[in-house]
């Protein structure tokens, strides 16, 4: 009988496993799209993001391939400033739209929209709903001007953000190896001229995963950094025989810092969660009132507690340099009251602990939040180091390389990176 129960349990376990939804690794192709005749002679740009790849990781872990590429191209050696908050979804979408998070609408990985009375959540169906996204992503700018674009993962690429998807894209998953990614991009660039994408995005999650779990100084994080070092060299070597004018832009969305998971601040218990929606990102807490009349009473009550571990802001009074105040975000997605821990402590809900590695802090006060930027290819000058800049300025530079006209207001300015480009 005991043997039967064991076998039965194994059968049920196998059946249970087999019933889990399969990961969709199928490419999506939008039919009927081709490059306009004037696009055929334009160059190519591959925008690469390694999530959580802190600005100093290349030197810290001696990545010979990446260092060689950076030193021979354009390199922000002292880092690139992420937009606030220094979190994945807001910054990937800032890079691809040239807008601050409060302006494009993705103010966090998870946030509440009081007008829709809905939550946007990473990993949910909201990610594929284009109505959450403002701005015009670079792939949309390209497609609308007769240039085929492709995405091997990027925030917003699975949605109708800006009114269009890239011609070729994949639903997000983490099943592809670095060899798979090189093969896919090479296949795209070997398509006929009419079908070949001139703008491509490529994303790697590994460094961020290890940084969160083990911290930025761990062997696991070092190994992930070297994995990226090898993957990018494979990509460069794999595309070289094609003899195409390919420009590479390597970025990250934010950095990473080690925090003490036992030394944290608990979110104040006086917040009535029947009256307020609370979204805690550990590095800041956003509080949205269901009834706006409740905002000031809670603000005053929080101030009265005089907690020394965090600052309390009304959204309208949030520091202007961060472009994350009520005047920047009219739809209240940033919340009505914002709590920001002092230093690099984390704020947690009762009974929870933060991970070892965190990001999301003010990059002007916590330099470990700074991201990576370097670029190389025929459009870029060589052997030039540049000062730190904000990531919204990548958009106009890529548009300039691809000879795309920017058709809507953005926060980025071509003056920032235009000097790093060769004259046409």
Automatic annotation (TrEMBL):
<dbReference type="InterPro" id="IPR002591">
    <property type="entry name" value="Phosphodiest/P_Trfase"/>
</dbReference>
<dbReference type="Pfam" id="PF01663">
    <property type="entry name" value="Phosphodiest"/>
</dbReference>
<protein>
    <submittedName>
        <fullName>Phosphodiesterase</fullName>
    </submittedName>
</protein>
<dbReference type="InterPro" id="IPR017850">
    <property type="entry name" value="Alkaline_phosphatase_core_sf"/>
</dbReference>
<dbReference type="GO" id="GO:0016787">
    <property type="term" value="F:hydrolase activity"/>
</dbReference>
